[in-house]
Amino acid sequence: MAATTEHVEVASESSETEQKEAPETTQDPETSDAEPAGSEPDPDPDEDEDEDAGEPQGPRIRDTPMDLQLEAIANTVALHPTRDVLACGDVDGDVYAFSYSCTEGENRELWSSGHHLKSCRQLRFTADGEKLYSVSRDKAVHQLDVERGQLVTRIRGAHGAPINSLLLVDENIVATGDDGGTLKVWDMRKGTAIMDLKHHEDYISDITVDQAKRILLTASGDGTMGVFNIKRRRFELLSEYQSGDLTSVALMKRGKKVVCGSSEGTIYIFNWNGFGATSDRFALKAESIDQILPITDSIMCTASTDGYIRAVNLLPNRVIGCIGQHVGEPIEELAKSWDSRFLVSCAQDQLIKFWDISSLPNTTVDEYRKRKKKNGRMKSLTKKAHGDNDFFSGLVEETEKKEEEEQEEEEDDSDSD
């Protein structure tokens, strides 16, 4: 069935988009530094002096914005390229836009859109931040105006199967992958597909592109990585089959390495132009690796069904530590803020959480392996890594530092590998 493109008039669609200002987000008790209910803090003479001086206390400034509580599970989250704004799409097909702030109580819902008939599976901002693309289980591709949340363009029946993945190659070219293994590349100036290829036997989970915007790489549930040439509009090759589904694909090491996450918890590593077979693999102690988000050329963050966000170094292959977790809930997607200060995650607990990763790019990884901690716990890389109560985070960090010092003292000179 041929896809139909609609350029939607603002007036006719405005009734479908809810423009509303949400009330202030209530503070999550797990992320709060406040005293428990019913208990009173010890009096502080300095505070009494401030009160006597009559100076009004301003709003509290947090290390990270407060969590966002959603009405339904969010499948996808994307962050604006130049502003403190995020968008998320949920299982009901609704798309929301929020502004976020470290000032307590300043998170705001900007607008919501209910144009999708079924679950919204992925969304992405354009590079200029003016448009937002979304794809859905209803097989449609939508383009929204970011400022007002209004539908601009709709491609009905864009695929014959529910759409699962989305990539914006540039301001005009969009790639989509569906549950049946079909890849389509769209010229949005014409609203037509310039590539329509099916070489995967199962769903396409993720799509990425090289810096030259020439080669598209796809990860699939059939266990292979696909290579497609956009310039020549043709299929190149499939990698050898890996064990389990390939759930994500990303470029590392300035494009010289390609990494794929898998449902088995293994990261498969390919050399650029060596797509047929893996050059290396790295098994994490994770139930799965559902997404890989590059932070630097060597450091990536991974999302897992076990609820943990791990920071992983590539070559040498090491798990650096834990960024954070959605306790016991599978993580759906990760995104990075425009200034690289925050990592944002959404999970099946209906929460969007913020993590401070500003110091992560400066992390150094030793060539030799250290002895693993006796309790098997990953190193905490953020204050909320192993719990959202900031009061105990300092104690955890001090304990971990002591454990590391003890381990270094016990370390043998010979390499245990």
Could you characterize what this model shows?
The protein has 417 residues and is mainly beta. 8% of the residues lie in helices and 40% in strands. The chain has 3 helices and 30 strands. Mean pLDDT is 85; it is low at 9-43, 45-52 and 389-417.
Quick gist of this model?
By secondary structure, the protein is mostly beta strands. It is 8% helix and 40% strand.
Mean pLDDT metric: 85
Cα(first) to Cα(last) distance is: 57 Å
Q: Evaluate the radius of gyration.
A: 23 Å
Portion of residues in helices? Answer: under 10%
Amount of beta strand: 35-45%
Shape: globular
How many DSSP helices? 3
Strand arrangement, major sheet: 1-11-10-9-8
Could you give a short account of the major beta sheet? 5 strands, antiparallel
Report the strand count.
30
Q: Structural class given helices, strands, pairing?
A: mainly beta
Low-pLDDT parts are 9-43, 45-52, 389-417
Can you give keywords for this protein?
417 residues, mainly beta, five-stranded antiparallel β-sheet, disordered C terminus
What is the topology?
Blueprint: E1 4-7, H1 10-13, E2 17-18, H2 45-53, E3 68-69, E4 74-79, E5 85-90, E6 95-99, E7 108-113, E8 120-125, E9 131-136, E10 141-145, E11 151-156, E12 163-168, E13 173-178, E14 182-187, E15 192-198, E16 204-209, E17 215-220, E18 225-229, E19 234-238, E20 246-252, E21 257-262, E22 266-271, E23 280-283, E24 291-294, E25 299-303, E26 308-313, E27 318-325, E28 331-336, E29 342-347, E30 351-356, H3 390-410
